[in-house]
Design goal:
Helices cover 11% and strands 24% of the residues.
């Protein structure tokens, strides 16, 4: 199976869409399982503290040769897959919820959480025949653990 190209971001904006293309938003219930897939992940988190906290959560779950690099603020556009074979497949959004991160923070403050979401085009989605849930083509259904076959 072709590797998916994802960009790690800490937000999603309508400005990331270049046309009226349809997108799917899937909350990742088990980030550890999700990262076991061989994704190519670039990092566009431009806020130093958010980047530190997110990488401290994600990188221990990834083999050393696939570590996610430090973030660098970039302009992101969800490409049309017809443009080129290696077009960006989607975003891995780390949505921080909690009080403002203090300067130099590397861990989540008390009562703060990070939810992980993937924003992708519908052609990268399976619908589980068992429960009808939506999930990415190379994952098991997060709702019933089926494989969509």
């Amino acid at each position: 199976m072709k590797k998916m190209n994802l960009i790690l971001a800490n937000a999603f904006s309508i400005n990331m869409i270049t046309s009226s293309e349809k997108l799917e938003f899937i909350q990742i219930k088990n980030i550890d399982e999700f990262l076991q897939n061989n994704y190519i992940i670039d990092n566009a988190i431009g806020h130093k503290e958010t980047d530190s906290v997110v990488l401290r959560i994600l990188n221990p779950l990834i083999p050393p040769h696939r570590q996610i690099p430090n973030g660098e603020r970039k302009s992101i556009t969800l490409n049309n897959p017809k443009r080129k074979a290696d077009a960006l497949n989607g975003l891995l959004v780390a949505q921080y919820k909690g009080p403002r991160l203090q300067e130099g923070a590397t861990t989540l403050p008390e009562n703060a959480t990070i939810e992980f979401w993937v924003v992708i085009r519908p052609e990268t989605i399976n619908n589980c025949p068992s429960c009808g849930g939506s999930f990415m083509i190379d994952l098991h259904c997060p709702y019933c653990a089926g494989d969509g076959v």
